[in-house]
Write a structure and sequence with these properties.
Strand content: 15-25%
Radius of gyration: 63 Å
Oligomer: single chain
Shape: rod-shaped
Number of domains: 2
CATH topology of the largest domain: Beta-Lactamase
Amino acid sequence: MNKQAKAGGEQAQVEKLLSQKNLAPRWYERFPRALPIGIFALTMAVTGLSVFAIENAETQRETAQLAQTAQSVASGIERRSNANAAYLRSGAALFATQQMVGGELFRAFIQQLHLDGNFVGSEGIGWAMRVERQDIPMVQDVMRRAGNASFSVHPLPGLDTPFAVPIMYLEPRNERNDRVIGFDMYSERTRRTAMQRAAAEGRPVASGRVVLMQERNGGDPGFLIYMPVYSVSDGGQSRTLRGFVYSPFDGQRFLQSAVNADRFEGVGIRLYDGAPVAANLLAETPQAAPSGRVVRREIDMAGRRWTLEVEAPSSAMLSMMSVMTLLFGLLVATLLLVLARLLTQQAVEDRIALAWFEQQSSIRNSLTRELNHRVKNTLANVLSIIALTRRRATDLESFADNLEGRIRALSATHDLLTQSEWGTTPVKLVIQAELAPYAQDAERHVEIEGPDVELAPNDALSLGLAIHELATNAAKYGALSIQAGKVRVWWEMAGEDRARIRWEESNGPRLNPEARRKRGFGTDLIEKIVAHELRNPVDLRFDESGVSCTLVIPVRRRGSFAIREGRPG
């Protein structure tokens, strides 16, 4: 007993805690997809920031590398131009000491440079002598007698130009360079401007963008570097311009000689004469896939400003590290999404299970109270039946038979209630259950009719007991005791919440006045117990034509007799 009491107390405590627990669903249970999607979005946002940081660092690295490449290329170009300028300075120093610069002297100078055909990106080294306009015929005659039979100064200077600067020699000797012998470079504005500046400053000066005379019908642009040669007289007080040592450069060849193409594969390199616009483009290296990431450097080459433009090659949208980070982040985000979805679903299911357990606990308590209520009512009915049967019984056998029949009537109705799980029970089923033994006899006439009406459990028990008493009385003394007798049971609605059930016997034995006045157990049972349970009076009559009984039964809504949930029965 102590163990049972202790277990009952613990169960009551658990049920109390369950009833006090707040079972309202949390926000992630009301929106089960919000949390997984939020975690997925947050993880992908962190992954996106990581990819952005990686790409930003990669861009900075590429920019630094590009700047380093630009500096390396600029240094190479400046070295090439400075090396050529050094050759021109040495030539100018040599020729300034000679009375005449002839072909043999010029070729000896070139051989002493030990270039071995490598003119560091230039077309060669040449000598252009200043010739007064009136001395042009004499110079042409001297050059022809020296072995250059086709030499002529072209174009001849105009009347407003006092002198010309024709090309006398250009090494190495080849078909391209032989085309320019005799060309008056002072006749062209870009070359003239560079020579004037070189003469004024006394140092190597590069010309602007020009097309070299070696090119036929135009061609790739290039430039020239001029170094003036002076003759000094009067003890160095005066000097006279004698001509220029110069080098012509094809822009494309010059850039290729200054840049190691294998080292800078894929990098776009462009050299401009001045501002980086298409009209000033001097040379460029081919680039298949431009990226738009450009670094510019200004170069001082022989006293002239050039612009070097280096463009990075096109690369993939994302680096390999970014792709791996993105894939890893997507994998982690997906796993977290699945895990969060499972946990959220589990939380929802746990909440539903907890609510179900609480509901079942409440239902169990209510069922216990309901069972107690119904057992008390049933035992009260049984005690009343036993008391009435004992008072009316003349011997033990009749007492046992009458009591057994009435208990069986209660049992039959209980079976119906059990089948309906103690819900509503149709009137027709209750009446058929009690009249089943008599309706199966072909010699007896039982008629049952009426609309579909559902009764509460207690009301069905009371109706079953009343029908049993009426049927038993009819089988012993009334219409069901003879072959010609007839019993008609019918019902109808007597209002929204009441049903009227009528029992009528006909063609049975005629009742004598003394029998009608005599009250038996069935009469008391119907008029007292049944009327009390149905909360309506019973109209029971014993006429000569047969017994008639009218019962008024309440038709209650389910809420008024369902599980009472703490309400008193």
